[in-house]
Design a protein that fits this description.
Elements: E1 2-7, E2 10-13, E3 18-26, E4 33-39, E5 46-51, E6 58-60, E7 68-73, E8 78-83, E9 92-99, E10 108-109, E11 113-118
Parallel strand pairs: 2-11
Antiparallel strand pairs: 1-3, 3-8, 4-5, 4-9, 5-6, 7-8, 9-10, 9-11
Length: about 120
């Protein structure tokens, strides 16, 4: 089992940037593919981005492509999400997830961190 703790959320104006972090503990971090999801008020949780175990392969939802960058540091057991040019519609709770097989079906979740983008 792996434990995940997100940080880095907050309030930012539209056009601004934030970097989310996800610290992992427990089983070896490099064993898992990793992903970010988000859930806005009144909406279902949605996929944002994912990366392979090495971080060499990355995937993005169309809504964030070109603005968000996922990365990982396996030596530090940490996943990141750099978010630039933020929009009010990016407002959501962002969740880190560890994946064994299918990126869309994570096996472990963090508790989430709130990101609020004001217009």
């Amino acid at each position: 089992q792996v434990q995940l703790v997100e940080s880095g959320g907050g309030l930012v104006q539209a056009g601004g940037s934030l970097r989310l972090s996800c610290a992992a503990s427990g089983r070896p971090f490099s064993r898992y593919k990793m992903a970010w999801f988000r859930q806005a008020p009144g909406k279902e949780r949605e996929f944002v981005s994912a990366c392979s175990r090495s971080g060499d392969s990355t995937y993005y939802a169309d809504s964030v492509k070109g603005r968000f960058t996922i990365s990982r540091d396996n030596a530090k057991n940490t996943l990141y999400l750099q978010m630039n040019n933020l929009k009010p519609e990016d407002t959501a709770v962002y969740y880190c997830a560890a994946v064994v097989r299918d990126y869309k079906i994570p096996d472990y979740w963090g508790q989430g961190t709130q990101v609020t983008v004001s217009s």
